[in-house]
Amino acid sequence: MQKVRPGIHALIARLGDTPAFVLGRRTDILTANRMARLLLADFDAMPTRERNTVRWIMLDEAARSLFADSWEHVASVFVGTLRMDAARHPDDTRTAELVGELSTS
Question: What percent of the chain has pLDDT over 90?
Fold first, then answer.
């Protein structure tokens, strides 16, 4: 399980009006500050396995609306990041499950 250091939690909390989140492996959203939860999505309310940037961008209609005209570019960037992670960790079953889920959606 990936963990975020207390200092990083404190840092993004202090950003106030600037949305910020911390990504881990597979583009998992490990933590987000209040503004990110208000402007983007309430990631804390999502089940842990669903807190993933690529999953959110690809499957959540609100994310598509949020990014509007730049959605294809944003999706492409994050899918590329997920592909790099999958190449670095070819035996990671959670990555394979995520890719499988996204491939059938």
Answer: 93
